[in-house]
Write a structure and sequence with these properties.
This protein is an alpha/beta fold. The protein folds into three domains: 15-84; 116-172, no CATH class; 175-366, 3-Layer(aba) Sandwich (Rossmann fold). The protein contains ten helices and twelve strands. Strands 7-6-5-8-11-12 form a six-stranded mixed sheet, with helices on both faces. The protein has a two-stranded antiparallel sheet with strand order 1-2. Helix 7 (247-259) packs parallel to helix 8 (295-310). The protein starts with 14 loop residues before the first helix and ends in a 9-residue tail after the last helix.
Length: 367
């Protein structure tokens, strides 16, 4: 029997694979359009004209019908306009999380593990003598029976409390986190879109917490001239405004939210591309200065970072720009808070934020 071979050719995507990729692309476009489904579809049509992303067996209408069938979009009963559903909102978060994790060089593991052993759910390979309060589910039967045989032999076998050994467990912590997103005008200045990647990271972190750490608490906070908390469902569609950077007000609101959380570990993740350039005066007026480092603004902001430290709140700052004034301020704030600072660039922002969150081993009580 003769066998002939030909050059290997990669198999084309299946219809289902193309559908999933298109839905992920659609999620990205929805973030760009602020949740405007019609505009996102128009962008898809433009991409199709340039790159032929739809085919005879998967048309644009097929795609829209599939989005409706899966419950990702729906028509408004009164206006008939297409809107993103709560299920579609969840899909955006899932796509963001998948996109971020796929860029990680090493897949992080664990669940807020600390260096300490104690009451937890993750077993280690080590064992210890049973103490009152240890879970019976963690009893090491092999070591326990060996201890009993060694003590009384086969003929006089009996099981005593001193024979029982249990597996050590990793001590785990819950966390209350505030993610602060800078929505000042510089986040879209000079034609560079910094806000969309920042939103994507916030969505990924939100989905991670909702699915893997349901006992943790996450607050999303936007800061520009002022600071405001937003819900997870609104996050994909927030936009930048003609704002300055009131970092102090963001930290004040974050500290207030964490004070009510009651969790052992409290942390702030701040994503910004600019130095603080605004504060509220005692009379409520907004004082602004975009030029250089205004010590009137900087000192008030550093006071807030110190207040966070006193309340054992760690601040991790993720800089997405190399502005010397920003770097200088962040260095000072990191010293004041004893927190952490990273220059990430937009490409690795997700890697730093999620790894820092998942591998949060030390208790904030150690500050």
């Amino acid at each position: 029997m003769r066998i002939s071979y030909s050059r290997w050719v990669a198999q084309a995507e299946t219809r289902q694979e193309r559908m999933e990729n298109l839905i992920s692309l659609f999620s990205q476009l929805l973030m760009q359009t602020g949740g405007d489904v019609r505009e996102a579809i128009d962008w898809l049509e433009e991409l199709d004209r340039e790159h032929d992303i739809f085919t005879a067996d998967l048309t644009m209408q097929d795609f829209v019908d599939e989005l409706k069938k899966r419950g990702f979009i729906a028509e408004d009963r009164e206006s008939g306009a297409l809107e993103v559903t709560s299920k579609g909102n969840q899909r955006i978060r899932q796509d963001a999380l998948q996109d971020v994790f796929s860029s990680l060089k090493k897949s992080p593991d664990g669940m807020h593990d600390t260096p300490h052993s104690g009451n937890g759910v993750e077993r280690t390979s080590e064992t210890k003598k049973y103490r009152f309060g240890d879970s019976v589910a963690n009893i090491d039967m092999t070591s326990t029976l060996r201890n009993a045989y060694a003590r009384g032999g086969i003929e006089g076998f009996s099981l005593e409390e001193e024979d029982v050994e249990v597996y050590e467990t990793e001590h785990q912590t819950s966390a209350a986190t505030v993610l602060m997103l800078d929505i000042s005008h510089s986040m879209i200045l000079y034609g560079e879109d910094r806000i969309t990647p920042a939103k994507q990271i916030a969505l990924a972190l939100a989905e991670l917490i909702l699915t893997r750490y349901p006992k943790d608490r996450l607050h999303i906070l936007l800061f520009g001239d002022d600071a405001v908390e937003v819900g997870i469902k609104d996050l994909p569609f927030v936009s930048v405004g003609p704002f300055h950077t009131n970092t102090r007000e963001g930290l004040r609101l974050a500290r207030s939210l964490l004070r009510r959380a009651g969790n052992a570990n409290k942390q702030i993740f701040m994503v910004t591309d600019g130095k603080p350039s605004a504060i509220f005066e005692d009379d409520g007026r907004l004082y602004k200065n975009s030029f250089g480092l205004d010590l009137r603004i900087v000192n008030k902001t550093l006071d807030e970072a110190m207040a966070c430290r006193r309340e054992q709140i760690a601040i991790s700052t993720f800089m997405v720009a190399r502005d010397p004034a920003l770097v200088e301020f962040v260095e000072e704030m990191t010293k004041a808070n004893k927190g952490r600072a990273y220059f990430t660039g937009l490409g690795r922002l997700g890697e730093f934020v999620l790894v820092d969150y998942i591998r949060n081993r030390k208790k904030t009580g150690n500050l």
